[in-house]
Amino acid sequence: MSRIGRLPVAIPPKVEVKVDGTHVVVKGPKGQMEYTFPSQVKIAVENGNVVVTRLSETAADRALHGTVRAVIGNMVTGVSSGFTRLLEVNGVGYRAELQSKNLVLYVGYSHPVTVEPPAGISFEVDAKTRQIKILGSDKQQVGQIAANIREVRPPEPYQGKGIKYLEEKVRRKAGKSGKG
To answer: Which end of the chain lies in a sparser environment, N or C, as judged by fewer CB atoms within 10 Å?
Structure first.
């Protein structure tokens, strides 16, 4: 049995979960999410928990069991407390700022790069620490937006300039040696 899949997902007090076959709708203070899962798993709400069980023991169904449980867990966490991803801007003259809801990046190009947030995503910028905070209820969407922003100017190993995840370690390389 899947170690992840067999764990029940606890439903917090202000969150409501509705299951209709394999279609799950989760409502909470941060919004609403819904998803239709494959029919190889059975999803039920029992005693304030969401329980996922698989219908057969094939390898694909065993893999799907843990995945479905993790996605439901992320949906419940997203609508109750939300997800956050932190990016850091490094480099002389590199900065980020908010213009209305849009994130504007000045990262060494001849033009500023504007990133518009999709529905359900918001940005916060701390100019003092040069950090960008991406907030949202969908874990996949928050991670994808963070990856897209990092892709604008990835960190480079020689001078360490660029946009990186806060917890990311950039492996630095030595530059050219002088004349010998």
So the answer is: C
Is residue 5 very low, low, confident or very high in pLDDT (cuts 50, 70, 90)? confident
pLDDT per position as a tens digit, 20-66: 999 999 999 999 999 999 999 999 999 999 999 999 989 989 889 99
**Measured between alpha carbons, how far is 31 from 62 in angstroms, rounded to an integer?**
30
- Distance of alpha carbon 83 from alpha carbon 30, whole angstroms: 10
DSSP per position, 7-57 = S-EEPPTT-EEEEETTEEEEEETTEEEEEE--TTEEEEEETTEEEEEES--
**The token pair that represents 84 in the structure block:** 């956050």
What interhelical angle do 59-80 and 139-152 show, nearest 10? Answer: 80
pTM across the whole model: 0.88
What's the alpha-carbon Rg for the chain, to the nearest Å?
Answer: 21
Confidence at residue 97, expressed as pLDDT on a 0 to 100 scale: 95
Q: Which domains does the chain possess? A: 9-80 (3.90.930.12), 83-165 (3.90.930.12)
Per residue in 150-172, pLDDT tens?
Answer: 999 999 999 989 999 999 999 99
